[in-house]
Amino acid sequence: MQSEPTIILSATDPDLPNKIPSGIDRYTGLREIARGGNGLLRSAFDPVTGRTVAIKSVLPPLTNDVNERRRLLREARVTAQLQHPNTVPVYDIGRDLLEGVYFVMKRISGENLFQVLKRIARKDEATAKAFPIPKRIDIIEGACQALAYAHARGVIHRDVKPENIWVGNFGEVYLLDWGVAKVWGHVDDQTVIRQDRIATRDPGEQLQTLTGGGQRPGTPLYMSPEQVRGNRGLDERSDVFNVGVCLYEALVIREPFRGTHLDETFDNILNKDVTPPSEAAPEIGIPKTADAVVMRALEKQPAKRFQSMREMIDAIQSIFPQTV
After folding, report:
1. Helix-strand-coil percent breakdown of the chain, rounded to 5?
2. Which of 159, 177, 235, 291 is catalytic?
3. Quick check: is 267 catalytic?
4. 308: phi then psi, degrees, rounded to nearest 5
5. Burial class of residue 261, CB neighbours in 10 A (0-12, 13-18, 19+)
6. Which CATH architecture group holds 111-317?
7. Which residue ranges make up each domain of the chain?
8. Do 21-106 and 111-317 agree at the fold level?
9. What is the pTM of this model?
10. The domain 21-106 is classified under which CATH number: 3.40.50.10540, 3.40.50.720, 3.40.720.10, 3.30.200.20?
11. Which InterPro entries does the UniProt record give (predicted)?
């Protein structure tokens, strides 16, 4: 678990340097946090603002790869424009002479939801006590709030999974990694994204997605049937399915569609009817009110799911009705 950076008095008092270095040279104490796929994430200190930040860049062998550079830049700009309490703020985007394109964002503390669920699966009593069912549902709802905001602005995440849901040390929830997001050219707050509800948008208005040609964006265990089939016309209901898988896993502490190999997993997503959470793990004490929410989110046909993330949020909030 990452700890919260400490505010150091000596970092608040120095005057600004006469010449502020450009590029990554502005930052000191770079330390690798993680690497995955083609990206590198590092922690660093910004002496100008006096705060610890996180810097994401392309791994060195791919620094000059045009597609990887463009993909990272698109991810940075999508993340920067999604200014919501459940997304990570982006502070800066730049190009370094040696390291290429990078972006700087808030350094967050805590851990991802996958790590939490993994410890619960291993019967870690302290984690189970710290993250009871209502709290796990609240965490999923936090990710849904970020998605509702993104959908209203024409962005479909396409890779919602516990590893991309960050749980902060002070109750924060962040939805991370917009690197395979599907982005539309322009959608205002009053416009519904779904193609079958849009009469005025030219299909050519869709921007190129962040994945390479021919790739299926997403993570197999959490894909919607549309993603498995490679459908190009994904909409917010695909994210609804992804969230449904996450919610099922958060309740039952196992994925609903896992097979012994990739083809079996895909076949399960397309054809398997899952057991309602309260029946799949009766020993956990999952409320039956959660069953209807999960099962509707996991409908094979998009038309039978929640038709918007806001609708799903309302349903999630009804699992444990608030009393006044």
Report:
1. 40, 15, 40
2. 159
3. no
4. -155, 160
5. exposed
6. Orthogonal Bundle (1.10)
7. 21-106, 111-317
8. no
9. 0.84
10. 3.30.200.20
11. Kinase-like_dom_sf (IPR011009), Prot_kinase_dom (IPR000719)
- The pLDDT profile of the chain, 324 residues, written as one tens digit per residue, is 566 566 555 556 666 767 778 889 899 999 999 887 788 999 999 988 889 999 999 998 888 888 888 889 988 999 999 999 999 999 999 998 888 999 999 999 999 999 999 999 999 999 999 999 999 999 999 999 999 999 999 999 999 999 999 999 999 999 998 988 888 743 333 333 343 333 333 333 333 333 333 456 678 999 999 999 988 889 999 999 999 999 999 999 999 999 999 999 999 999 999 999 999 999 999 999 999 999 999 999 999 999 999 999 999 999 987 644
Amino acid at 191: T
Q: How far, CA to CA in Å, does 21 sit from each of 26, 59, 203, 269, 288?
A: 5, 22, 44, 51, 58
